Amino acid sequence: MSDQRRRCINDNCTSKPKSKLHPANKSMCNYYNVPHTPYRRVCGACLQKSIIYFDRIGRRFKNGKCILDDQYPIKLTSIIDLSDSDDGNAANNDAEPSTENLNDPQIAKLRTLINTTLKDTVGQLYKKQEELCQSYLMSEKAKIEAENEKLNNLTQQVDLAIGQLYNNLYKFDSQRRFEYDKEISIVEDLNNTDEDTVLSMTLPRLLDDIPKECKPIRHLLKLGDRVYGMKHSQMRPWFEATITCEFIDKIYCVKFDDETEKVLNYKNLAYIDAASQAQYPVGSRVIAKFQDVDIKLTDKFYVGIIAEPPKLLNNFRYMIFFDDGYVQYVCHKNIRLMCGESPDVSDDVHENIREFIKEYLQKYPERLMVKFKKKQVVRVELNNVWRLAKVKNLDASLVQLKFLDIKFERTEWIYRGSNRLGPIQDKLCSNNQDKRVRGTVLTDVNRLLNRPYIEIDNMTENEKSVDIDNSDNTQNPQENNGVIKLIQIPANCPKPHPYKHHECSHFCMLWVHYDYSQTKYMNVLNIPLHYGFMRSVLTDEKLKLKKVIYTTPCGRNIDNENEMYNYLKLTSYNNNQMPMDLFNFDCLVNPLSLLSVPEVFIRVQDISYEMEFKPISVFNSLNDLVPDHIKYITERKIGPGVNLNIDSKFLCGCDCIDDCEDKNKCSCWQLTYMGPKTYPAIFKDHDDIGYSFKRLHKQVITGIFECNASCKCKKTCLNRVVQEPLKTSLQLFLTEKKGWGVRTLADIPKGSFVCTYLGVVRTEKDADSDFPLNWGEYLADLDFLEKVEGIKDGYESYVVQSEDESEDHTSSSDDEEFNPSWAIKNKMNIIESRMLLRKNLQDTNTKIDGKHKLSKLNTQQKDVSKNTSLLRYLDRDCGIYTLDAKVSGNIGRYFNHSCDPNIFIQNVFIDTHDLRFPWVSYFALSNIPAGTELSWDYNYMIGSVKNKRLMCHCESKNCKGRLL
């Protein structure tokens, strides 16, 4: 007998364990919320309790009262019954009553009579009970809704009280409350698909206290008008006054509230009313309240100029350049318009910032800005001394810097375009401006090393909308441009044998007859699939991860690069060992993807005319044009006046016979490691530097030294990549806006070598002579030394000791020039010294000398580096050498620019170790799908060439809008 037969169905029964049990019918089981079975039992006390309940409910039903308006029992959690098979059968039998004698006429007549009697006797009671229950439920629902409304009101009151408390704790005039327009729906047409995608966006709008953009109107002043006037000087606060007399030429006599009188012209007066019906345009002369998060100074006005209009990027505030050199964001309500200004408003500002303001307004809306990230270190001018400072915070066009190399701790907000910042000053003092458009082929060092770097900010373009349909730089092949298809491996290609236990040797692959010279028209990643390998993508059900499995010709399964490399070594024969870059274990890369284009638009079958191992076709579906003829080369050419020695006797070579697997023993690998070891704080993971199975996943600024002709290693060496023939399937095609470009016909894995940039090596003087004719088109500087030297600039900033260290340190005097080798070991206290001066100026009765110590927006201080560049010892007359691909070049000359590039440049040394002549090589920055245009960042400096403006059409998400 099961346990249920020996206990009461009431799970909360308080009867004694051995109390007498009675059979429980369906109503009893329903009362205690348990399924009914024949073996259910109930004790006497629980039976009496249920009988009393049903008797009470019956009386309420009979008397026409609502049965729900009663104390009904608490439902218990359903119990899962683990009964044996016999009990289960019993339950089933009970659940399915016998149908015996159902067809008996007498029984059927009796059933009809019973139903009729029940309908006549209790039918009206059922109907009335239904109405009573419905009314009861509606009443209960109304009560619950009323309680919910009370809770909602109470919650709103609590939120309001918390908000008021927050505002009282953090009450500043600059705090804003933003409102948002109603959501709008953007329907994206997905190329005639059955469904449209609806994107909901919430767009911010201008605040209620910011008027629309239009020209502000200056009304004429009259006697009795209240104004703000310059009581002392441009450096000090302005105060309220009343106009008492008017003279000629808009000169007025005003009386301040302390009875002081002064004669001022309209340029030294400001309107007292803030209810302007127009936004203040950039360059407007204004007075504005100055405030600080540490010292609440919100009741005094200082004179300045509008430098930035209210926009979403600055939280709808104006940026003000104050005459005393400070800069701050101010709300519209805290600004007053000056009663007048000069035609050239820079004539009205203080002489200390006049030149800066004049230049700023001439170049606006384009601004030279430093791009910062928190915790970066930068050189900053302070009191005519260059010092180190760390980025503490960012606010749109402002950066908060914490000075490190002074005895006391000091923080300051600085405009990101001020030449008090080292990167701006270096750019202004550079001698390389206005020379060459493509001044470098190496990605900006500062950006790569996560240092502050310069970018051009355009206030009219920085909030431009992004085209949802084409928001990246990926070219989606459509219509005439071709379609992506999957390659079909021929049926007669070798297939893997069933695996049998064996020791792998060259016999495992000898039967497939691999020969790389026969793979000219194959995509590099599907070459193994033509020679007995099979590639599968499997899903690990436990980890929910996908992984790539290669099945070898002998039936062995391999899922990682190390194992594959060892297999290729064991199975190699003669010189036909498969290289590692034919294999890829990334499931996002498809070796069978291929861009298929209409043959009718192929204008040239191979622009290299079989000089490259892989043919490079020319595609043009827009018109009948073909590229201008060039002399296609596969090796760089030497121009006149260039002394390039490529004799292998002058090269350092390795003695490796193991394909240079052991990087510690290979002298060529050690040359690559030597540069990064000089900068341990920048290159921290030395094991991740250089090639990894013939792929480069991270740029090595100090250069890569490949094995060369004097090395004893074989051609299969892992340190021979760039020197190999072209393997990538490329196509030259005509774009709609960018001219000729290059795209890949097959998937390219991340880190793969793409091709080189070749041309004629020319001297800097020789290349500059042609600059006025071609604007530096197809020129690329061999500026490897210059970029490596750039790492040294401020290198010590990256080895600043932790602020937690509390060793004593004595700062140099203020008269000493900036020296980047200073160690920063002292922990300093926060003292806002510049704010203390502002605080003292609030009290107009305080005796002061009238001089305001400037926190300058700009400085004439020049940073003279004490580091000696190697360039001073090499070819002083020749300067930097240049690759000119205008007349002679290769496919690398056609790559277009993108602000979100998918390939990057790497300097590699192969045929010479002369640091002036590296090979310029392209590598994949990410996985690149078939049909995608290949592009790299030209790293042009916008505005570097006068009277030259070149728009950018890369259409990437981070497009800057301009190249020059």
Keywords:
964 residues; alpha+beta; 6-stranded mixed β-sheet; 5-stranded antiparallel β-sheet; 20% strand
Gross morphology: flat
Count of DSSP-assigned helices: 14
Number of strands: 41
Distance between the termini: 92 Å
Q: Quick summary of this structure?
A:
This is Histone-lysine N-methyltransferase eggless. The protein has 964 residues and is an alpha+beta fold.
Topology (SSEs and partners):
Layout: E1 21-23, H1 26-31, E2 41-43, H2 44-62, H3 85-95, H4 105-169, E3 184-188, E4 197-201, E5 226-229, E6 239-247, E7 251-256, E8 261-265, E9 269-271, E10 285-289, E11 301-308, E12 318-322, E13 327-330, E14 335-337, H5 354-363, E15 366-371, E16 377-382, E17 385-395, E18 398-403, E19 410-415, H6 422-428, H7 445-448, E20 453-458, E21 483-486, H8 507-510, E22 534-540, E23 545-551, E24 557-558, H9 561-571, E25 593-596, E26 602-604, E27 617-619, E28 631-632, E29 637-638, H10 667-677, E30 704-705, E31 730-734, E32 740-744, E33 753-757, E34 760-762, H11 764-769, H12 771-774, E35 779-781, H13 784-792, H14 833-840, E36 882-884, E37 888-889, E38 896-897, E39 903-909, E40 919-924, E41 933-936
Can you walk through the features of this model?
The chain has 964 residues and is of the alpha+beta class. Helix content is 18%, strand content 20%. β16 and β17 form a beta hairpin. It is found in: Chromosome; Nucleus. GO terms for molecular function: DNA binding; histone H3K9 methyltransferase activity; zinc ion binding. InterPro entries: DNA-bd_dom_sf, Methyl_CpG_DNA-bd, Post-SET_dom, Pre-SET_dom, SET_dom, SET_dom_sf, SETDB_methyltransferase, Tudor_4. Residues 948-964 form the Post-SET domain.
